[in-house]
Every structure is written in C-alpha cells, then in structure tokens.
Amino acid sequence: MGEAMGSQMTFDWDGGQSTWYEAVPKSGTGPAVIVLQEWWGLVPHIKQVCDQLAAQQFVAIAPDLYHGHAAKNPDEAGRLMMALNIERAADEIGAAIRYLGMGHRKVSEKKIGIIGFCMGGQLAVYAASKFLEIGACVDFYGVHPKIQVDYSKIKCPVMGFFAEKDSHVPPETARKLESQLNTHGVKTDFHVFPGVEHAFFNDSRPEVYHQQTAQKAWERMLAFLRNSLKAEVAQ
C-alpha cells in the first residue's frame, strides 16, 4: 500500500465533534464504507485501507475512536482498547452514518458497508446490530471482551475472516460466532485461513502479515461489498 491520499475531516453532531479520515474515488462518487481501526488506533495502515477502497470506487471513512491517540506498543494498545467507551464509539459510528446519509453528493448507494479489524471487527458486528443503514458487515478477526452483541438485531449479511493460528480468536470462536449469527437468521460467509496468524492483513506488521491470504481476503471482501451494496463500481 502506498502513501495516504485522503484527508482528515470533522463533523459536528449533537454529541460533540467527531474526526475521521476520508478517501474519495477519483470519480467523486461511490458506495460508502466505514472502516474501523484495530486496537492501535487510526494509524497509517487503516488510512491506507481507506485509500485502497477509494481506488476501487468506494467512499471510505475511518472514525478516530481514540481521538488523536495511537498506541506505540501492545501494552498501550490494550489499555486504549479496554478504556474505549463502547456506547460512545457506537454514537460516533452513527454520526458517520448520518454524515454519509445526509444527501451526501459523494455517496451513490443508500446502504453503507462497514469493515473492522481486530477490535474494530467486533465493533463492526456490534454496529450492524445498531444501525439498519448498514447493508454489509465485514469482520476481520474481531475481538473485544467488553462488546456484547444482540445478534437478533442484525439484518445485513456478515462476512468473516479468521486465522487458524490466532490465539486471540481461535477457529472455534469464529465458528461459534457464525453459528450464533445463523441461528438468528443472519446470512454469513466465514473463512478460516490455514497457517496464518491474527492480523494477517496488516502489512505494517511483517511478523504476521501474509500477502497471499490478505489478497485473497481483499478480493472476496470487494466482491461481497459490491454485491451486498448493489454497487455499480469498476471491477
């Protein structure tokens, strides 16, 4: 992934002011996708994911759920994750949804996609249970012990990407999540990739990044978003 090409944005709402990174396709319009950060914060990798989505004709925004803070090591990341106010984070995601849905000239579809990584993966599933505007949810190895989801409230399809060697979200946890979603009538498309570890998609972490698996997940995700959001975007 190359240098970030989007920009920082702010949005005033009744709960205060939210900040996020926004990347827009060269065409100026496309279906919208919200990208939720890992426990590290709104770091360059997450911004680059937005840029890559914009290159595929999506309008992508990543809320700064840590409000300017970014972790430098796992201990700090863990503290920031556990200190996250879940309801406040959901409110900020809701603010982003309202921003995108306010007749936004950049957004071509009524339904919005949401993607999350690690902490953000669990938060994406939670957001899907809160907001009917979400038409597609993608969970990359989601984990957060404080987030409890009412699966009966989810009305959109959920795609999940997990790793065989993930000590945080082992395959049996992924299968349990899929089973719980299916029990509540949620359409799912889950994948547990063999031989890879947690955060296999994060190319800023060479110790766990797996290019072939990341590319496979990326291609499947794009197809899922295009189909679920009924987006007429470049293939």
How would a textbook summarize the main sheet?
A: 8 strands, mixed
Helix-and-strand structural type: alpha/beta
Average of the residue pLDDT scores: 91
The tally of domains stands at 1
Strand order of the largest sheet: 1-2-4-3-5-6-7-8
Question: CATH architecture, please?
Answer: 3-Layer(aba) Sandwich
Query: Would you state the CATH class?
Result: Alpha Beta
Query: Could you give the distance between the termini?
Result: 19 Å
Q: What would you say about this model in short?
A:
With 235 residues, this protein is an alpha/beta fold. The protein contains six helices and eight strands.
List the helices and strands and how they pair.
Elements: E1 7-13, E2 16-23, E3 32-36, H1 44-55, E4 59-63, H2 74-83, H3 86-101, E5 112-117, H4 119-130, E6 134-140, E7 158-163, H5 171-183, E8 188-193, H6 211-228
Parallel strand pairs: 3-4, 3-5, 5-6, 6-7, 7-8
Antiparallel strand pairs: 1-2, 2-4
What do you see in this structure?
With 235 residues, the protein is of the alpha/beta class. The chain has a single domain, classed as Rossmann fold (3-Layer(aba) Sandwich). The protein has six helices and eight strands; from the N terminus they run βββαβααβαββαβα. The protein has helices at residues 44-55, 74-83, 86-101, 119-130, 171-183, 211-228, and strands spanning 7-13, 16-23, 32-36, 59-63, 112-117, 134-140, 158-163, 188-193. The protein has an eight-stranded mixed β-sheet with strand order 1-2-4-3-5-6-7-8, with helices on both faces. Strand 3, helix 1 and strand 4 (59-63) form a beta-alpha-beta unit. The longest helix has 18 residues, at 211-228. The chain starts with 6 loop residues before the first strand and ends in a 7-residue tail after the last helix. 46% of the residues are buried.
